[in-house]
Amino acid sequence: MLRISDKPNLNTAANLVVVAVLMFAFVFVVMVPLYNVLCDALGINGKPSGQSYTAVEAKVDESRTVTIQFIASNNEGMPWEFAPSTTMMKVHPGAVNGTVFQARNPMPNPMVAQAIPSISPARAAPYFHKTECFCFNQQPLDGETAAELPLQFIVDQDLPRDIGTITLSYTIFDVTDMAGAAVATR
Amino acid sequence: MVFKAKRLGMLALGPVLLLMSVFAMAAGGEVSEVNMSPGVTEVGQKIYDLHMVILGISTIIGVLVFGVMFYSIYYHRKSRGHKAATFHESTKVEIAWTVVPFFILLAMAVPATTTLLDIYDNDDAELDVVVTGYQWKWKYEYLNENGENVSFFSNLRTPQSEIDNTEAKGEHYLLEVDEPLVLPVNTKVRFLVTANDVIHSWWVPALAVKRDAVPGFINEVWTNATKEGVYRGQCAELCGRNHGFMPIVVNVVSKDEYSQWLAAKQQEAAEIKELMAQTFTLDELMVRGKTIYETNCLACHGANGEGGVGLPIAGSAVATGDLGHHLDIGINGVPGTAMQAFGGQLNDVDMAAVITYQRNAFGNNMGDTIQPIDVYNHKKG
Amino acid sequence: MGDHHHGPAKGFSRWLFTTNHKDIGTMYLWFSFSMFILGGTFAMIIRAELFQPGMQLVDPEFFNQMTTLHGLVMVFGAIMPSFVGLANWMIPMMIGAPDMALPRMNNWSFWILPPTFLLLASTLFMEGGAPQAGWTFYAPLSTTYAGPSVTYFIFCIHVLGLSSIMGSINIIATVMNMRAPGMTYMKMPLFVWTWLITAFLLVAVMPVLAGAVTMMLMDVHFGTSFFSAAGGGDPVLFQHVFWFFGHPEVYIIILPAFGVVSQIIPAFSRKPLFGYDSMVYATASIAFLSFIVWAHHMYTVGMPVSGELFFMYATMLIAVPTGVKVFNWVSTMWRGSLTFETPMLFSIGFLVLFTIGGFTGLMLSIAPADFQYHDSYFVVAHFHYVMVAGAVFSMTAAVYYWLPKWCGRMYNETMGKTHFWISFIGFNLTFFPQHFVGLAGMPRRIPDYALQFADFNMMSSIGAFIYGASQILWLYNVIATIVAGEKISDEKVWDGAEGLEWTIPTPAPYHTFETPPKIDPAHAHS
Fold first, then answer.
1. How far is the C-alpha of C347 from the C-alpha of C340, rounded, in Å?
2. Residues A77 and A125 placed together within one structural domain of the fold
3. Measured between CA atoms, how close is A116 to chain C, in angstroms?
4. pLDDT digits (tens, 9 = 90+) for B246-276
5. Are residues B136 and B256 part of one domain?
6. What does the pLDDT average to over C460-475?
């Protein structure tokens, strides 16, 4: 019916379909990874790096003291008892510090937990290095057993001068089902 | 024409003055029903000033633009015999109305930026409070350098009968809680905001604080109330069924009163520990249990245990069945359902009372009592 | 060239298999009107519950389903398809094309809509009810904590996205390839321009929404953790992805409305649009800016201060091109020869109320002040001023403006003006008091409220019932016009109207511009 050829229309349509498909892919291959990179770099949400920090030999800055607060909370439906053994520590930038969190699985069955760290103020997150943390891995516990979960960290000497207090929060999630599924698919 | 235009300009000022005076009048009082309140913090005052300035600028621009428009609507109508001009496009005019707004915006951006930087200055807080959003209540935990943290839940206190319109509504309908957050006056308080399940948002207008509570992450925000009083707010982010029923009440008191309150709270915690060793009669547990039931269970399980979001309790297999199983559900919840783990929310005395209540109220009449020590033992396995 | 002067086929198969842009446009318009009524019914239930403090009619869960469905149905079912319908009818007639570029795809993009909305509405009767996480469906409320209907909801969003993308591809292909000889880009009517830019926005961001709901689907059913902190994801990521779609989306809704008003105001001012070029550039800059301001919906989420500042400045900038548009419309009216038929009344209503919505938008862009406004009724008032008084008023104006052309019959002017005044009063009575309760501290999406908000809420509910009822008058007027309106045959229905659509016979024949019209190269844009 149309006097003009369909060809330019189909070309335009094909190009636009490519744009739409690229935009769909953009969400997965650009937005999600980019967001994670930005979170790491800027400490958005106080999300610290999920990887272990390889300590570089650094001088301890004895002249400066930073207060570290520890908070623990359970996500919904997580019955574990979970608490820091100390709620507050005073540390020097550059020094290696250690503490433990107490966890206990009160249920009769074994469970797997994942602790998610979050740091406040968020801009301190890039300066808070964990050399050892229970949050790097999922934490299984047999029924009705307790464990001490170790944490080792260094506060960077380059921590901005105006930050005097850093709060480290762990939220513990029940990932028994997820971990089970991962085992099953393996 | 010139005269007319001038008179029109005077007319245009009328509504501006009227609007401003309405708002100014409202601002005189503490809480306004038509305008933002400056609240009781310096930041709140700055935000309020910013709000009024931008509202003022907008109103003036609006009056000018609409003034021109209504002038045109009146004088340039065809029915008055006005002939249409043919002019269009004028680079000078168009540049002017691009550049002038730009500079107005620039002028707005300056105070906005300084206020924002002020809000983000979280350092040197004297008191840290962890605020955790739950479906549908708030938990407050005071971080304490020496000794144990004080922590408690804050539930809606308005009775269901007022919500259902079977009883007259009280003065603070939907804005009252069983245990308010207590803060000392003239103290920089830092809130560490997080959530237990979905996203909530902690908003107290008078403190000029609104921060999203995101599960798994903490956000921080601070306030410094300069005036004692009771300030009320609500959850601002849709969080499910009872989003409208999780208010916030903040009691700002003198520093002395605050220390007394904190000491009393610590004392209370110690007393609970003592109570845990005691044995209660069925009646004592029933009285305590009823209150606990009404604040924690009623919303889902109904005033008469008839159920709702949750399963019925009246005549249920759990409440009339094995005691250990009943305790287990109360303490650990039922994963994957709306039934939360109350083990961390209620102390052992309250847990014992509410389980006893559930087993003996609503015609369940099991006749058994649960003592705090039973709860303690159950928790420890 | 054969016998292509045949009329439409008879019966239902005419509508089912039609590839005619006018038929498809008509179907889009009727469908979107029925969705407007459905979404409006949900709004009436919301306002009825909020008439007084206390829970009277529905339970909070159902209330949340109502707010969610009201938003989804109005945005995706009423406003967007109505402008697509208008584009179908008008774009070929405005650029001198015989039909849309891809007529068969045009048919599909319409016909997948009705079953999708049927499915979405049917979730109301499912166990666990319809989606109830709001039209912005923030995770994890919409994922981990959602009922079984979330899967159907995700499917619906996918299909709606597909329909919008197909519709946009069609519009872009039509505008790029099917313009009559001599119809250069800078001669196109502004409605065509705004739609061309809108269509590009749609192709760019509907796939992003599809990506967001795909991630939700994977989180719900396939054990991924895009939006769950437990598996290393982040609920805030959802908001970033959603608003990366969502902010351009609000311009998708409002830009065609700008286009409509830019056609109608010059017609009834009997004077050309003041600054055509600057209107085109302003539209393009608004579209560009819409991609870099999304996080102003998330000021309270806990962004770094640098992020807050960036999004605040970028958002404030939008006031500049938006101002250019408003100034242009007013200057077009200035020293014109104005008459106030119903389309003009609705356009002036649009101009005044949209500008008020623009001012509150500017206030909301100020991050520190937004800490008080965010998620309060102030926001509800703001976006209804731009969505209802912006998009819906301009759509209403468009129907009154072009209806006589479409069916060759004149609507009842008195009834039209009555419709305007009742709508205008009802709308303002509904939404103006919401500014006050919002500033005084009433959060949005709550089924019950404290006593100090009672008076304004009652006012708001009464206004909503008035506004809702006035739409029945509109429906009656349109049907009465189509069935028994006074017949007209002038090509130009309005003496001041310009453009190719006014050069064809009235009523517009089933096929138009089978021979491309001659465009006078000296004649400026219409």
1. 10
2. yes
3. 7
4. 999 999 999 999 999 998 988 888 787 777 7
5. yes
6. 96
**For residue C396, is pLDDT > 50?**
yes
Q: Which residue of A has its CA nearest to B377?
A: A106
- Are C338 and B82 within 8 A, CB to CB? yes
| C211:A24 CB<8 A | yes
> What is the average per-residue pLDDT within A110-129?
87
A112 touches A179 (CB < 8 A)? yes
C101 inside 8 A of chain A by CB: yes
The Cα B105–Cα C314 span in angstroms is 11
C-alpha to C-alpha distances, C378 to C309, C351, C439, nearest whole angstrom: 22, 20, 6
Contacts of A108 in chain B (CB under 8 A): 381
The β-bridge partners of A155 are A128
Give me the domain span that covers residue A54: 45-185
Partner residue facing B244 (CB), from C302, C339, C446: C446
Per-residue pLDDT, averaged over A148-166, amounts to 88
C123 to chain A nearest CA, in Å? 27
- Cβ–Cβ of B379/A144 closer than 8 Å? no
Give A105's contacts (C-beta < 8 A, 6+ positions apart).
A79, A80, A111, A141, A142, A143, A144, A145, A146
The domain total for chain A is: 2
Instruction: Supply the ipTM of this predicted assembly.
Output: 0.91
Helix (H, G, I), strand (E, B) or coil at C65: helix
Chains A, B: CB pairs < 8 Å: 96
**Are the Cβ atoms of B333 and A77 closer than 8 angstroms?**
yes
Same domain as B303, residue B256? no
- Say whether C423 sits in a helix, a strand or coil: helix
Q: Is C351 on the interface with B (CB under 8 A)?
A: yes
SS (H, E, C) chain A: CCCCCCHHHHHHHHHHHHHHHHHHHHHHHHHHHHHHHHHHHHCHHHCCCCCCCCCCCCCCCCCCCEEEEEEEEECCCCCCEEEECCCEEEECCCCEEEEEEEEEECCCCCEEEEEEEEEECHHHHHHEEEEEEHHHCCEEECCCEEEEEEEEEEECCCCCCCCCEEEEEEEEEECHHHHHHHHHHC
Provide the number of structural domains found in chain C: 1
Is A131 among the domain residues? yes
Q: What is the pLDDT of residues B97-115, one digit of tens each?
A: 999 999 999 999 999 999 9
Contacts of C4 in chain A (CB under 8 A): 1
- Establish if C108 belongs to a structural domain: yes
- For residue C312, the chain B residues in CB contact (below 8 A) are 109, 112-113, 116
pLDDT at residue B148 greater than cutoff 60: yes
Mutate to test the interface with C, among B237, B245, B250 (most CBs of C within 10 A): B237
Question: What's the domain range around C443?
Answer: 23-228+240-502
Which carries the bigger pLDDT value, residue A76 or residue C110? C110
Question: How many CB atoms lie under 10 A from the CB of residue B310?
Answer: 18
Catalytic residues of C: 70, 99, 135, 163-164, 247, 249, 251, 262, 296-297, 322, 325, 444
Of the candidates B73, B212, B238, which has its C-beta nearest C301's C-beta?
A: B212
Number of structural domains (chain B) is: 3
Strand partners, B139: B132, B153
Q: Is the dihedral of CA C495, C497, C500, C504 positive or negative?
A: negative
Chain C closest CA to B152's CA: distance in Å?
24
Query: What is the average per-residue pLDDT within B341-346?
Result: 79
Distance from the Cα of B142 to chain C's closest Cα (Å) equals: 21
Give the domain extent around B211. 127-273
A175–C231 C-beta distance less than 8 A: yes
Classify residue A50: in a domain, yes or no. Answer: yes
Same domain, A91 and A165: yes
pLDDT, tens digit, 9 for 90 and up, residues C157-205: 999 999 999 999 999 999 999 999 999 999 999 999 999 999 999 999 9
Higher pLDDT, C413 or C7: C413
